[in-house]
Amino acid sequence: MLSIFSGSIVIVETSAHENVNVDLAFLVLAQMVDKAKNRMRIVPFAEAARSRKDVLDVVTEGYQRLIRAHVTDFRAVWSTTAKRLAPNPDYIHYVELFGQDDAQRLFRRHVKKLKDEHLARKIKGYMDTLPDILLELFPDLASLEEGDWELVKEKMHSHPDFNSYFLDCPADGMSWAETDLLDSTEMRIPFDVLDTSEAEMVFRNHINALQKEQRTTEYRRLFKNLLEETGYVTPGKSLAEVQVLFMGRECFEALSEFDCHHIYDLHQRDITEKARRNFQVFFSHSF
Fold first, then answer.
1. Number of compact structural domains in the chain
2. What is the mean pLDDT of the chain?
């Protein structure tokens, strides 16, 4: 039986789930019934599947591009948006191939992306403001509760100027991102934003900055003492003439060029003034 039908049975690979070669199978069958002379080329399944995927990708990209162009506000709602997009060919083609539910799913994904981006911009704005607030409330290491962020937050919450810088969390337990604050022009920082890792990082950077400033202050003091103890530094000498004496000394190497010159200039001013007074005393005693 197999030899009788060998070569006369046309096999068309199809996928109803992916809508690949379904129409072709019926067309081929119709041609076989009509015994048409010019039969359609049987497209291999892999080739047909690739073509189908290309069509779906083009339609999807067209619809996504349409959404990006028309939906720029994270507060957009599907019912209004769908009515506005309904006449557009890119919307029509997508719905024909994927259905309304998929069209709404991509819309919601896009709106969530817009909201996340808006949220990130708000948080960045808060983080840009937070360093100045920390410096105002905690200007030195002694006020930082030994670096315990939780204790520092408690201290901020009980600070007399709390309401000048922060907004308390909503009483109903909602986060600030779930309230109208997300779309407000309020510049104060919602207090629960301080629970984020970004806020704690700003706090850690504040500690590091204060520690660095403390070390720099100590190096400035030590360099000034070094200048006072060095007899080779006399009035009128430039730093370039004597700086070889300080090479390898931590207090000199750790300071910036500006700091070194500033401290040296102050020292020159002091020793020049001292020399002037000594000369006046000597001159007055001589005559």
1. 2
2. 84
